[in-house]
Design goal:
Elements (H helix, E strand, L loop, with lengths): L10 E3 L9 E2 L5 E2 L9 E6 L8 H4 E4 L2 E4 L4 E6 L2 E3 L1 E13 L9 E9 L11 E8 L6 E4 L12 E9 L2 E4 L4 E5 L6 E4 L28 E8 L2 E6 L2 E10 L2 E9 L1 E12 L22 H8 L8 E4 L28 E2 L6 E5 L8 E5 L7 E2 L1 H13 L3 E6 L12 H16 L1 H4 L6 E6 L1 H11 L21 E5 L30 E5 L5 H13 L5 E5 L19 H10 L1
Parallel strand pairs: 2-8, 25-27, 25-28, 28-29, 30-31
Antiparallel strand pairs: 1-4, 3-21, 4-7, 5-6, 6-21, 7-20, 8-20, 9-17, 9-21, 10-11, 10-20, 11-12, 12-16, 13-14, 13-15, 13-19, 17-18, 18-19, 22-24, 23-26, 24-27
Amino acid sequence: MPVRPLLVTLTLSLAPATLLPAATAPTGKIDLLADPSFKDWVFHLSEKNSLTTRRDEVAVIKNGVLQVTGKGFGYFRTREAYRDYHLVMEYRWGEKTWSKRLERARDCGLLLHSHGPDGAFSGTWQSCIQAQMLEGSMGDINVLQGKDGEGNLITTRLTCEVEKTPGGYRWKKGGQPLTFPPAGKSAASIRWKDRDPGWKDEKGFRGARDVEKPAGAWNRMEVICEGGSYRILLNGTVVNEGSNAQPASGFIGVQNEWAECFMRRLELWPIGTFKEKVSQQTPSVLPPAQWSPADKRLASLRKTGHALTVLPIWPGDGSRPDDPTPALSESMPERGDNVLRITDVSKPTLHLWPAAEPNGRCVIILPGGGYNILAAQHEGSEIAEWLNGQGITAAILKYRVPRREGLQKHTVAIQDAQRAVRMIRSRADEFGIRRDQIGVLGFSAGGHLTMLTLHHADTKAYEPIDRHDQASARPDFLLPIYPAYLTETRESTAIDPLLRRVPPATRFPPLFTTVAADDPFAPGLLCYLLSLQEKEVRYEVHIFPGGGHGKGLRPTGYPFSEWTKPCERWLKDL
């Protein structure tokens, strides 16, 4: 909660609180989300400012995950008080915001060392030292002193080393030690160490040095309370701390203020026993507010069916640290020919297009473009719509282009493609996909990349970074459509060295391919297929008398554009 004056409100309180409750220090892990009935929690909600005060509409624990709906205004807290603990919380923001937070920064918080009467601070909050959860201000500390029945401030204080900035006091290690709130004041805020000086109270705000991951991604917040010390870590980074906390114990509360938030972990550990390091986790989905202009353009091409999901391929900011050019600005060069070209990609994404009546199969689409651009419409979205019509979930990979100087043309693209296959397989249950029914379909350069995903499925294109990389990168079936670069040069009959190591026929997945006779890359495909035949690998190929190269399934490529008909039969036969 940003500290601000609040009106006294009528509240719902299910249990009284004592001024200084006896506190328990955990001797083992305490899971505060273990009981979905909330029988050990007290709810205190404003009837005036809440959309609802029904407990089951304010907070729900399902499958171990707490959903703070944001429909309430107030908090819920433990009945038991705690001291000397290492609190671990993993959370992500939801999409929904309400009332005065409809367009403002998402807001929640942990109300720690809570004590005194419920609602003693401005009729809504309890006296506490809050670990703030506010977009762009994650890790601020708010110290709230409520009033007792006689109007006296209920002592709640914290000493912090700070520096003064135009935006208020900010924590700085070795700075001036001050005690908050100042004498005679009821509240104070200590900003986290790198809070953006241009912070705005607006939904989706991201500061230049934010440690928090974008909305929709899972984050870890830790608060270590030992004696009078109070330290906040966000995703493994210390962002704020204080000492001489008064009191040094109390109830633990969760703020509810018009913003949806999910918590999959809320635990108390004995001091010194929590040893887990924060891993670089890939955000589960990329929220629309974080889509690039090219992602938005590609997403806008979906006209029917269920809403699509955009998945980031890599953790952190979405780029890879070993990319020679990680800070490109995506562009979509126009030529007036009804072709969507995307280039300068450094943060690859996967656009998941579910079928209306899914059959459990998924095809990852690799648009062509010579490893320099991505023909993301006629070799991407239009193919996804066709696959959806077959009951197949489509996943369009916006992989990194153009080619990186000093690297082979495919180097960064194969990293993205391997990662995409692994991510779909590791999250198959989440998306209703069968793990043994994940295929890859690519056009032109994307067709070459399709075959690389098989020939190099057992080769590490990058070092594993998380659980997704434990899954196999091997596709279950392949559809290279007018593939390019299968021979050393266009005129050569020698197979591309990257494709010469052919898996045994018993391990070679089903293969469908097609090309037009007047396609300049047709001879290369035929040479490659002959190399497979020498290894007794079976495949299906369709060669059309005309249609050229690079037309997708558009009628301008007739008769080649009829390739989808035999392909539909082949997919049914799989």
